[in-house]
Write a structure and sequence with these properties.
It is a single chain. With 203 residues, this protein is an alpha/beta fold. It has a single domain, classed as Alpha-Beta Barrel (TIM Barrel), CATH 3.20.20.70. Helix content is 26%, strand content 21%. The protein contains six helices and ten strands.
Length: 203
């Protein structure tokens, strides 16, 4: 099971997360308490191993700005949490993850509209798009096959429920942000415990 730790803002946490087994790190360039500047993200990314995906998170940002940040921060993937169209998602040089809010089974029909391979399935929007720490009904994913699509499960994941979430939803990757924080800050002990649980039943 691949694990993405989102909302990384400092080198120490990034390196610790990678040491614990994180496969991807997320850097938020949208309005969020975890927002980071492209220059600060680049400082962190320059110290990361090549195999780790460096994913920039955006909400309804202009293409020119996204392209600039991809170059400046040296991102390997980008993740969209806004109202980005399929055409917009196809216009970038790096792989795109499209985040979709899941309320019911009909929401999965949106996947067919997009040609990108990766989708992040999240709980319905709260104050910020994503990063609200609430989960949706994972049973909606149970037994569902997505041909040629890769699923990242997000929203409300934490140490105590990630094994259950993986067992029910069978995603390709799990994504956590607030679930590995203490008082709004990333907690390395929680990151380690989360990754251990997520990868426990790896085959």
């Amino acid at each position: 099971m691949k694990v993405k730790i989102c909302g990384i803002t400092d080198v120490f946490t990034a390196l610790q997360a990678v040491e614990c087994g994180a496969d991807a790190l997320g850097f938020v360039f949208a309005e969020s308490k975890r927002k980071i500047s492209p220059a600060a993200a680049r400082e962190i990314i320059d110290q990361l191993p090549e195999y780790v995906e460096k994913i920039g998170v955006f909400v309804n940002e202009r293409k020119e700005m996204i392209d600039e940040i991809i170059a400046e921060a040296n991102l390997t993937m980008i993740q969209f949490h806004g109202d980005e169209t399929p055409e917009f998602c196809e216009s970038f040089s790096v792989p795109v993850v499209k985040a979709l809010s899941i309320n019911d089974g009909e929401d999965f029909e949106q996947l067919a509209d997009y040609s990108n391979q990766w989708f992040l399935l999240d709980s319905p929007s709260g104050k910020y798009r994503g990063g609200n720490g609430t989960s949706f009904n994972w049973e909606l994913l149970s037994g569902r096959q997505f041909t040629d699509k890769k699923i990242i499960l997000a929203g409300g994941l934490a140490i105590d429920n990630v094994e259950q979430a993986i067992a029910i939803a069978c995603p390709d990757m799990v994504d956590v942000s607030s679930g590995v924080e203490t008082d709004g800050k990333k907690d390395v002990a929680k990151i380690k415990a989360f990754i251990e649980k997520a990868k426990k039943n790896n085959h």
